[in-house]
Amino acid sequence: MKQMEDVMSIEEANHIDELTGLHNLTGILEHLQGHDKYSASANTIIIFINVMNFKVFNQKYGFAGGNDFLRGMASELQKIFPDELIARIGGDQFIVLGNSIIEEEILEKMEEFREAVHNYEKGLKMKIKAGIYRAKGNEDDPVIMVDRAKMACDDIIRVYDRDNNFYTEELDKRNELRQYVIDNFENAFKQRYFRVYYQKEVRSITRKVCGYEALARWLDPKYGIISPAVFIEVLESVHLIHRLDIYMIDQVCCDLRDDINSGYEVEPISVNLSRLDFELCDIMSEIDKCRERYDIPKKLLHIEVTESAIAAGADFLGKHIKKFRDAGYEVWMDDFGAGYSSFNNLKDYDFDVVKIDMGFLREFETNQKSRIILASIVHMAKELGIHTLAEGVETEEQYEFLLKIGCEKMQGYLFGKPKPVSEFVRNVDCSSEISEEFEYSSYYDDIGTVNFLNNTPLRPKTMEIMIKLPIAIAELCEDKVSFIYANEAYMEFIREMGASDIEEANRIVHSSEVEDTRGLSKILKMAEGSYNQRSEADLVLNGNVVNTKVRFLSRHGDKAAFALVSRNITAEKSAHTMDDYSALVMHLMNLYNRIDVFDEDGNIENVFINGNQKAITDVERRTAIAIEVYSNMHIAEPERERFKAFFDMNTVHDRISKSGQQYLIDYYKSVIPGEEGRILMYIILPFFYNGKWRFIAACRYIDELNELVKEMSQL
Ligand code: C2E
Ligand code: MG
Ligand code: MG
């Protein structure tokens, strides 16, 4: 009512918004200029409110539904700001104007408002942004005041996690710069103010540069370096962005050609495209023209398309992405995770690389969740066969983490800020210590496909979900255990235990004759009762030893649920032990250059050889001759007789028993080419096996032993 009285006092029907009965923009301006309680003063506060996704609401519920929603908003605003003037100034834009709003209460009231609006949302999550302007009292024109509130609101339109924004001087300066850009972009093209800056992209596992991203800068005589964050948007709004992007790509090709001609190692360069490039020109043929002009192969240019562009572009962009990929260009998705529909984009379009938005790393230190999200993105991308690059890496800790989760490439201030070509030191930056040789890029890309976060990293990618760990969910009701879920791996295990499906498994478990099924209910109870809600036991089932690990999940009344992981260790044991032994034996063998076994009958066999030695036993199995041949090839001439005596099979037994030790040891000079003069240590160890004495003979260089002793003494 009160609002209506105010409206009537102005007595102008065209000051009223028909749909809501609120004021419209003219009405608001009229009041600001007038002489009532809403006239502009140093106490005036203007809140500009904008619904981000109203279009979607309209599409879903039609205009009538949309109108209901707007009327709902109007009535809630009136309830929450009963003493202020409320207006609807356009489709989904509202203004709250008042001289008695308490600044400290605004955020709280806006939250209250958003909460109230949920009642009208019909299940859609509406995103409402607010820009707030507190007047200074010296504004000449009320339009400026409304504009500034709008400016504050517009400033956070693309900021996903900010819903309220107060107008600041800095915002004003930014806007002034924006205005400057609008007024001067033609001149900037003419005067060649635009420059290419390059930022390194680094291969995580080698930490070598494996590419660069080309980023635009406007070098202005008045404002200095103007950031693309300011001018890209302006150029898009005046539909000239393609001119900049083609110019950038031309420069990139020109720089690449210079480097190729100078014989430097070149890396591929990623260039940024705007969604509008695809509409404003035939961007692919423009890029092809640039490449042809400088004779640059396609694989040296990667195409970056921002995620928001994709979200807005729907089908037609998909076609362009495909066209680029079919032609042999790599297409990268930029700023993944910054937009609203990241995951759909991965589903709907084929990309070679996702660049993970730096927003996740900004919270790396403060919010543990960001690590989980990053790991999940990398995991998912790998499962989809897409490569990953993390943007905005600034610390060693971030690098280590990303390396650990298998993120393949990184970019960020840790490795270098964007610089113009003139600031790169070619001999250093293009050297093979710093830069990856381009031929290796697909080699490392292949390595990058391995998913460290998967428990079946060795399987080829088939787009199917496969979990090797046998997991089941079991319920315990009184003393009765029943499986209610088993994954494919667990089903396999159940079949091994002799049941064909879950029902049969449950029947076996329920029959009290099977002793060990009672063991199962016991370990479930143990899990529920234990301090960490876990338990583990080996049970004998159907003649097999089965290891089962249990975690208690939840209880309601007499029902409790548990997660189980079971493994048949009878089946695994022998294979496992063999694996362990062979690993151990291999390790022992590696300490020696060679190991031979000879027996009392005068035969010799080589079991292991490493380094520059010759096996000999492959052509000669009789010990005496083999030793003769061996000593001629490997041992310094003056020591050969002594060496042959050391390996004399007829005396070896006696010598060992006389030595008072369990073995014989001696040293000889090597004449192996490249290793002349080094001292070899030979050791002979007897052992009795299968009714016969046999001897292990092993050798290694003693200088290596000395190294080892030195290292150990430093520990
Ligand atoms: P982008 O493609 O995601 O580029 C990465 C941005 O992150 C760059 O900002 C880069 O300077 C900045 N950056 C890199 N490492 C770090 C870091 O460790 N910490 C922080 N805080 N920032 C880092 P820049 O150069 O201001 O570019 C902004 C955006 O403008 C780009 O985001 C890109 O979307 C767009 N852009 C730049 N050049 C062009 C161009 O030639 N054409 C088009 N269409 N868009 C461009
Ligand atoms: Mg980019
Ligand atoms: Mg990016």
Protein architecture, described:
With 715 residues, this protein is α+β, with helices and mostly antiparallel strands. It has an 8-stranded mixed β-barrel with strand order 6-7-9-10-11-12-13-14, surrounded by 4 helices. A 5-stranded mixed sheet has the order 2-3-1-4-5, with helices on both faces. A 5-stranded antiparallel sheet has the order 17-16-20-19-18. A hairpin with a 5-residue loop joins strand 6 (194-203) and strand 7. Helix 8 runs parallel beside helix 10 (283-294). The termini are far apart. 30% of the residues are buried. The model has no long low-confidence stretch (mean pLDDT 87). It binds ligand C2E and magnesium ion (2 copies). Residues 213, 272, 304, 334 line the site of one magnesium ion.
Short précis:
This protein is of the alpha+beta class. It is 43% helix and 23% strand. It folds into 4 domains: 13-167, Reverse transcriptase/Diguanylate cyclase domain (Alpha-Beta Plaits, 2-Layer Sandwich); 192-447, EAL domain (TIM Barrel); 471-571, Beta-Lactamase; 573-713, Beta-Lactamase (2-Layer Sandwich), CATH 3.30.450.
The third-level CATH topology of the largest domain is TIM Barrel
What is the fourth-level CATH superfamily of the largest domain? Answer: EAL domain
Percentage beta strand: 15-25%
- Give the proportion of residues in helices: 40-55%
Q: Could you say which overall geometry the principal axes of the C-alpha atoms support?
A: extended
Going across the biggest sheet, name each strand in turn.
6-7-9-10-11-12-13-14
Count of all domains: 4
Tell me the distance between the termini. Answer: 86 Å
**Architecture of the largest domain, CATH level 2?**
Alpha-Beta Barrel
Q: Based on DSSP secondary structure assignment, what is the total number of beta strands?
A: 25
Derived structural class: alpha+beta
What summary fits the major beta sheet?
8 strands, mixed, barrel
Overall CATH class of the largest domain: Alpha Beta
- The unreliable regions are none
Rg calc: 38 Å
Give the mean pLDDT. 87
Which compounds are bound in this model?
ligand C2E, magnesium ion
Number of helices: 25
